[in-house]
Write a structure and sequence with these properties.
The protein is an alpha+beta fold. The chain has a single domain (about 5-95), classed as Phosphoglycerate mutase-like (Rossmann fold), CATH 3.40.50.1240. It is built from three helices and two strands, in the order H-H-H-E-E. It has helices at about 5-10, 15-30, 45-55, and strands at about 70-80, 80-90. The protein has a two-stranded antiparallel ribbon with strand order 1-2. The N and C termini lie far apart (about 40 Å). About 5% of the residues are buried. It comes from Shackletoniella antarctica.
């Protein structure tokens, strides 16, 4: 599928990338009003869609973000918006080795 087809495709019983993005954007508005931190736990596909939204990057950049399972990414909220403080960290998984 083209990027536009992927963006608007609605799988049976699901939502399109476009619908998911609209839902994420609505929540982003609230996150900016929250205290100094918030945690987001989600599947990789959601995170790949969310990161470009946080960083005001084009949708195409979502394909650059291939996050490891159980990784931690940290974003700060500044006057200009969100910024990456750490991306795809898996150091916490190495405990006990």
């Amino acid at each position: 599928m083209t990027l536009e087809e992927r963006f608007t495709f609605v799988p049976p019983g699901g939502e399109s990338w476009q619908q998911m993005e609209q839902r994420l954007l609505a929540h982003l508005q609230g996150w900016r009003q929250l205290s100094k931190s918030a945690a987001v736990v989600a599947h990789g596909g959601v995170l790949r869609a969310l990161i470009p939204l946080l960083l005001n990057e084009p949708r195409e950049s979502s394909f650059r973000y291939d996050l490891d399972d159980a990784s931690v990414s940290v974003f700060g909220v500044g006057a200009e918006g969100f910024e990456v403080l750490g991306l795809n960290s898996v150091g916490h998984l190495e405990r006990g080795q």
